[in-house]
Amino acid sequence: MNRMLTSVLVVGAGMAAMNYMQKNDMMDRRQMKRLQKKITKAIF
Predict the structure, then answer these.
(1) 12 secondary structure, DSSP code
(2) Is the pLDDT of residue 44 over 70?
């Protein structure tokens, strides 16, 4: 249960960070996809 809650928080934080970066154009699309893969691998 605790681990589930932690992963949900991490996903939320990751999504917020990615939205922020997209709005500010800090990363290109390829880097975004790579980062997404890393995040999903870390969770599952």
Answers:
(1) H
(2) no
Per-residue pLDDT of 7-43, as tens digits, reads 888 888 878 877 777 777 656 777 778 877 887 787 6
> Tokens 């890393």 label which residue?
38
Q: Which DSSP category does 28 fall into?
A: -
> What is the distance of C-alpha 42 from the center of its chain?
10
Q: Which pair of tokens denotes residue 18?
A: 């990615």
pTM of structure: 0.42
Rounded CA separation 20/41 (Å) = 21
CB 12 within 8 A of CB 26: no
Residues in Cβ contact with 35 at an 8 Å cutoff, skipping those fewer than 6 apart: 18, 27
